Amino acid sequence: MKNYEFFDHTADLGVIFYGKDPSDLFQNAAFGLFDIMLEIKEGGERGETNAYKITVEGDDWEDLFVNWLGELIYSFYGRHIVLRRLWIEKIDKRSIEGIMYCEAFNPRYHRIKKEIKAATYHQVEVRREGDLWIGKVVFDI
To answer: What is the pLDDT of residues 57-97, one digit of tens each?
Structure first.
């Protein structure tokens, strides 16, 4: 199963993320977001990996999804950290808690491929379809 794919959108970037359950969906969205934004050079010593507690709330699955992606975008641009591993401890339709293992952004090892400004509510959708969870979002670029 693929973790994400793009869909056509006039001015911004439309992405559909997939997962086998909500935790898997939100985890795939996190890694997919960083994969879309960055090219990470493998090998070499990149520095220390630090753990950060992450807690995000929302009114429903869609609001939680946008807030989750927004928090990850803030972590990159505001804290200058790059996601390496993620452990989701708890998730329901109103909150998600986990631990992000991140390294500091370093232009020697991280090349920005696409600048994403924000996750938007335009066409946002989180739904279960059979055995698959689908999250659709449009990013402002």
So the answer is: 999 999 999 999 999 999 999 999 999 999 999 999 999 99
